[in-house]
Amino acid sequence: MNKNGIYEIADGVYQIRYYFLGAADVYMYLVIGKEKALLIDTGYASTRVKQYVDQVTDLPLIVVNTHGHMDHIGGNRYFAETYLSANDLETAKRHSESTFLKEKNEHIFSIRPALKGLLKDEKYVRELVENEKGQDLNCLDLPETGYFDLGERIVSFFETPGHTQGSICLYDEKTNVLFSADTLCSKGVLLGFEESTGVKEFRDTLIKMASFCKDREICKIYPCHHDFPLTADMIDAYIVLCDQIINKKIEGTNKDTGTCDGLYVSDGKISLIYKRI
Ligand SMILES: [Zn+2]
Q: What would the pLDDT profile of 43-94 be if each residue is shown by its tens digit?
């Protein structure tokens, strides 16, 4: 059974695991410095992420969103302010509107009828209702690159357009860990949203990430969904897949995952859904 909780994955680095409706996994991260702590993403509203943070630190908290999707910003309501790329602000606003969230969930349930059975359980109904409540955002702009100084610990970040225009990855110097958010996931990367980039721009991001990892010999990459940790060879595998799409060696077939739709390609291990090249 998937278990919600907070787990130390490296020195002073914690992974918060949450399974929405007991099924859809999403991970948040907490990095502890000498003077401040950094929370990477706020999950769904029903995650109530603050309870996990409180279990390990009472340091002043900086909160950052890796991008503007509902499963990464849902808990922003519990914090006075959060950092988010200005390029994702429109997306985040849309993903904070009750009507949008209700329609999205309805669509997901229609695509995946197996999930409907879950709604016989009151706990899950409560979770769903909580996540469909809208919120007002109070987001501070992030520059394209920069860093957070947590006191004897620097966590840097850089923009990685692909999954969304304003997606970022973060890097903890102390443990040499990269947080890849939804830009790099084991099962697949989704470029099928209206806020996603085309395949070429995503490929540019992957090239940037590959050289970032090579320069620092990064061997642990922590995503926001699916398997973890990932290694840098996965970036190369996605580059190969992008090249095949760009060079018209392969062409996707239509697919709707419920969260987004587009053309689907796979090499048997990783997959990509895209709307345009
Ligand atoms: Zn996302």
A: 999 999 999 999 999 999 999 999 999 999 999 999 999 999 999 999 999 9
Residue 61 CA to ligand 1 centre (angstroms)? 23
Q: The tokens of 42 are what?
A: 């706020």
Residue 1, pLDDT score: 58
| Domains of the chain, first to last | 5-95+135-274 (3.60.15.10)
| Model pTM score | 0.97
Residues with CB under 5 Å of ion ligand 1 are 69, 182
Per-residue burial over 2-21, b if 16 or more Cβ lie within 10 Å, else e, is eebebeeebebbbbbbbebb
Whole-angstrom Cα distance, residue 132 to residue 40? 22
Ligand 1 geometric centre to CA of 35 (Å): 30
Backbone angles phi and psi of 28, in degrees to 5: -115, 165
CA of 67 to the centre of ligand 1 (A): 7
Spacing, Cα 152 to ligand 1 middle (Å)? 31
pLDDT 10s digits, 144-163: 999 999 999 999 999 999 99
Q: Does 24 have pLDDT greater than 90?
A: no
* Cα-to-centroid distance, 70 and ligand 1 (Å): 8
